[in-house]
Structure of Acetate kinase:
Amino acid sequence: MKVLVINAGSSSLKYQLYDMRDESVLASGRVERIGMDSSIVTHEPADKPEVRDVSEILDHVTAVKRVIDMLTHPDHGALESMKEIDAVGHRIVHGGEVFKGSVLVTQEVKNEIRRLFDLAPLHNPAHMMGITAVEANMPGVPQVVVFDTAFHQTMPKTSYLYPIPKVLYRRHKIRRYGFHGTSHAYVSDMAAKVLGKPLDTLKMVTCHIGNGASCAAIQDGKTLDTSMGMTPLEGLMMGTRSGDIDPAIVPFVMNKEELSLNEVNSMLNKHSGMLAISGISSDMREVTEAMNDGDENAKLAFDMYTYRLKKYIGAYAAAMNGIDVLIFTAGVGENSVALRETVCQGITFLGIELDLELNAQRSKEARVISTPSSRVKVMVVPTNEELLIARDTYSIVKEAQ
Ligand SMILES: Nc1ncnc2c1ncn2[C@@H]1O[C@H](COP(=O)(O)OP(=O)(O)O)[C@@H](O)[C@H]1O
Ligand SMILES: CC(=O)OP(=O)(O)O
Ligand SMILES: [Mg+2]
């Protein structure tokens, strides 16, 4: 069975094509800057050189058409025809309380995803466009949706309720959902395998630090708590998102700066975080480079980012009354030697001893980067949300056949 995995973001669409016989990747790629002046398509077939193409791609339907063109191209394609694709799996950021696992796309499922637009305005509408585009371009192909929120659905009330009037939960389902669940599930499971220990015996803190960033406290292989909340804005400082701030700032700023709801939402989601403090970029590579060149704002951004991450790790170690494994993953977590070093050197009281040489080594493998005497195992585990999405898609479609 061949499975196409689509991860549609607000202005981008990432894809991977799997042959599920051996879980090999036949091609992968991404469409960036959808709806902007020049969109970039980068396509990487498994055994042919990468192809880049710049053109105008105004919406996700056109983006899916471009992906199909790339996948079936006579020179750099991976398929003779799209008929070879048996199923499509989508990452969906918000599944609310309704979706506790992955499901086949039906009219009712689509209606439910639409009802959740309010809770993830940056993400869910884009995912829906991805689903519609596949329906239009690949009629009859079964689709499966895999939710970022599903893995965190085991959180207890003490973690997921906010201390605000209970009627708001009953009426509007205002609660913590948590996100990046597929990634937290994948890396915690992989870490236990690498350590050769049963997952349900370990207390873990998983740090998914990408453009969006979240931490999770994983006990007995389940989420006890996680830093993102009702939306992916809460928690850690991120590339362009503020993370935790005093909620009173919102009405105060709206009043003083005469901002609308949309404007204040956009300020906190798109114009805050590392971008706002550094004044340079939301990209950790550019901020680290500027910091190393002596830029004080970049240093402040890096210091705030790592300080806030340290506080969450400490809080989750306290929440679980201990920590056995600390895991770094996603773009920044997997690649930033400086971030891991700064964070780990500041929380040695937890029994963390980083091996500086192992930390500096580059590898695509899941690995331990703490010293043998370190009480807590520190690990880098490259995430693979797409593989879990492909696996769920495969098993759900197979079962339905
Ligand atoms: N070599 C690197 N060093 C430091 N940061 C990196 C490196 N490579 C990628 N990153 C960071 O990873 C981030 C993207 O992470 P990723 O997990 O791909 O994010 P998302 O899936 O949310 O778009 C970039 O913003 C960049 O800051
Ligand atoms: C949920 C979320 O923040 O996703 P991403 O990191 O892909 O933006
Ligand atoms: Mg991501």
